[in-house]
Amino acid sequence: MGENIFVLGTLVAPLAGAVVALLFAKNNHAQRLVGLISSIVAWIFSTRVLLQVHQTGVQTYELGSWSPPYGIVLVADSLGGLFAFMVTTIMIGGMLYTLHSHDRCMTYPVFVPLFLLMEVGLVGAMLTGDLFTLFVFMELMVLASVSLTAISDDQFGLEAALKYILISSMGTLFLLLGIGAMYAALGTLNMADMARILLTGERPFLAPASALMLLCAFLLKSAVFPFHFWQPDFHTTAPTPVSAMLSSIVVKVGVYGIIRLVTLLFIVEAPLLQRWLALLGIIGVIFGSLGALRTYNAKRMLAYSTFAQIGFILVGIGWGNTLAMIGAIVYAFNHAFIKSSLLMLMGVVASYTKVKTANFASIVGIGHKLPPLAGWLVLVGGLSLAGVPPLNGFISKLALIRGGVAQQDWVNLILLVSAGILTLIYMVRAWQQIFQRAPILETTPAKETGDSLLAPMLLISICLILGIVLAEPLLQLVTETVREIGDPNTYISAVRLRLEGP
Amino acid sequence: MIEFMFALAIGMLFGIGVFQLLRRDLIKAAIGFAILFSAINLFFVAVSAFDGEYAPYVSNVEAGRQTSDPLIQALILTAIVVSFGSFSLVLGLVNIISLRYGTVDSNAVNNLKH
After folding, report:
1. Which of B33, B78, B100 sits opposite A158 (nearest CB)?
2. B113 falls in which pLDDT band (50, 70, 90)?
3. Beta carbons of B36 and A146 less than 8 Å apart
4. What is the pTM of this model?
5. Cβ distance of A162 and B93 shorter than 8 Å
6. Is residue A286 part of a domain?
7. pLDDT at B62 over 80
C-alpha cells in the first residue's frame, strides 16, 4: 500500500531511456543498447510491482503528492500490473530483435526513442488511474507507432500510417467526448471516484452515452469488427519488431480498457455491452480466420489472425462469468507472446529475401537458407497459436472454452473451435510453404544472411515455459486477478480518495 | 440561451469537421481533423466553464457562492497540445506523400489495395 515508487519507475525507465537514446543520436549501436537496457530495467520494476500487488494488494503512486481525486494517481492493481508485466516482457523481445536487425529504418536516430515512447504510452495507459491521463498515454502510443510505421522500409508504410492516424484520431475524438461526458455528468476524472459514484446507483443522463463512446474508442484501438479495416495494412507494413509489438501488446490496450469498462466503471450497463462484445468478437473470429486463409503475405496472415484472436478474447469478456474472464485474460497474456514471436520469425524469413518481403510468392522454399532452428520455431509458434497441447495456446483456449461451457453458449463455442482448426490449417500451410517446399529458384532469390533468431527464440521458449511449467501458476494468478476485479470496491478503496475539502 | 449557442456551435464544427475529413484531398482531410479537435475543446469548455460565479483559488468568496472549475483549463491545454502534435504529424505525412506520389488525392494514394 501507499507510495510505491516502482509503479512510477516502470513508466519512467523507458522514458528516461528515450531521452538518453536521443543523446546518443550519432552512435546507433549505443542507442540500441540503451533501448535494451532501459526495457530490461522497466521489466525488473514491473515484475517487482506485480509481485508486490500479489503480496500486499493494490499499489498506488500519487504523482506530485497531489491526493486523488484532485491529483493524478498511478494505480497498479492485479489487472494493470499483469498487463504492464506482459508489455515490458515483450518489449525486451522487441529491443533484442532491434539489436541485431539490418533494417535501414533502425539506423535512423529516432527509431529507438520512438520505440521506447511507445512502451511509455502502453505502460502508462495500463497503470494510470485517471481517465484523461489514459487518453494522453494512448495518444502517445498512437503517435509513436504511426511515426515508426511511416519510416518503415516497406514503401507502403507511409500510406498505412496516414490511414491509421486519420482513423485512430476519430477513435481519440470519441474517447475525448466520452471523457468529457463523464466529467460533465460526474465532475471527476479519477476512475476510482467515477466507479464510486456510479456504484451508489446514481445514473446521470450522460453515463450510458459515454460508456458507448469509450467502448467505441477501445474497440477501434484493438481493431474489432466494425473498426478493423486499418489493421492488416498497418500491422503488415510496420518494421518487424514494431509490427510484433503492434499485433501483440498494442491491441491489448483496447482489451484492457474494455475489461476496465465492464468490471469497474459501468457494471450496471455491463450485460448490454457484453452481449455486443460477444457478437462483435465472434464476427471477428470468423472473418479474421477466413481472411488469414486467403491472404498472400505471411505477415498479413498473422495480422488477420490477430483480428481473430482479439475476437476470442472479446467473446470471453462477453460471456462475462468468472471462468470466461479468466480465459479471456489468460488468452490475452499468452497470445501476446505467441503473436510477437511469430511476427518476428516472419520478419527473419523476410529478411532473407532480396527485396525484404513476406509475400508467399517470394518466400516459398526459402527455408533451406535459414538455420534449421527457424523451421522448428515457426512450427512450435504456429501450433501454439492453433492451441495444440502442451503449448500455452492450448492452455488459453482450454481456459476460454471452460468459460463457454459454464455459460452454455454452444453456438459460439462450436464457432470458436472451428476457427481454431482454421488457425491450424493456415499456420501449418505457411510453415510448409516456407520450410518444406522446394524453392522456385527464378522467383525466390535469397540472401545468405538475415536477422538474428535470438529474440523469437527467447519468446518461443517463454511460450513453451508458459505452456508446460508455468501454466498452473499463471491460471492461479489470473484467478486471483479476476476475483479482485470482480469487486470494484478493492480498486476504489486502494486509491484512498480524499473527498472532504482541504 | 448560451447553452443552445454552444450546442449549435459544437454541432456545426463537428459537421464541418467530419465533412472535411471525408474529402478526397488529404490536406483538407487534415484540416477537418483540426476542426474536429476544436469542436471537442469547445465541448469541454461548454460542459463546465460557466458553473461558478467566482474565479477559483481566491480568498474573498462569499460563503455559499460557487467558484468555477479550474481543472477544465488544464484538460483543454493538454488536449490542445496533443491535437497539435497529431495535426502536425498528419501534415508531415501528407507532405511526404505529396512528394512521393506527386498528388494528395486520396484516390491516387491506393497502393495498398492489391
Report:
1. B100
2. low
3. no
4. 0.93
5. yes
6. yes
7. no
Is A379 among the domain residues? yes
A421 assigned to some structural domain = yes
Q: Hey, are the CB atoms on A169 and B33 less than 8 Å from each other?
A: yes
Residue span of the structural domain in which A296 resides: 269-487
Does some domain include residue A189?
Answer: no
* Structure confidence by residue, pLDDT tens digits, A330-359: 999 999 999 999 999 998 888 888 777 788
pLDDT digits (tens, 9 = 90+) for B73-82: 888 898 899 8
Distance CA A142, CA A150 (A): 12
DSSP structural state of residue B60: -
How many independent structural domains does chain A possess? 1
Look up the ipTM and state it: 0.90
Q: What residues of chain A, 388 to 427, have a C-beta less than 8 Å from chain B?
A: none
Mapped to the 3 state alphabet, what secondary structure does A76-130 carry? ECHHHHHHHHHHHHHHHHHHHHHHCCCCCHHHCCCHHHHHHHHHHHHHHHHHECE
Q: Which domains does chain B have, with CATH numbers?
A: 2-57+65-101 (1.10.287.3510)
Chain B residues near any Cβ of chain A (below 8 Å): 21, 26, 29, 33, 36-37, 40, 43-44, 47-48, 71-72, 75, 78-79, 82, 85-86, 89-90, 93-94, 96-97, 100, 109-112, 114
The pLDDT value recorded for residue A296 is 85
> Which residues, at least 6 apart from A466, have a Cβ–Cβ distance to it below 8 Å?
A334, A337, A392, A395, A474
Residue A1 has pLDDT above 50, yes or no: no
